[in-house]
Amino acid sequence: MDTTLTITDVAEKLQLSLSTVYKFAEEGTLPALKVGKQWRFTEEDIKQYLQSCKMTNVIKEE
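Above: the chain sequence. Below: its structure as tokens.
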């Protein structure tokens, strides 16, 4: 089972503000699950998001 992360955990890992992580979660940029009023993320989803960002940068550079 994947490790579950809070919005604060994700903000620290990605070096983003809390408001940016909230925005990304709400618009679907970051895969997330809303449990009550709180957002939850899986470690695997965050890794895949980072990988997709790397791939986007490689494509833009070519």
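The longest strand covers residues 38-42.
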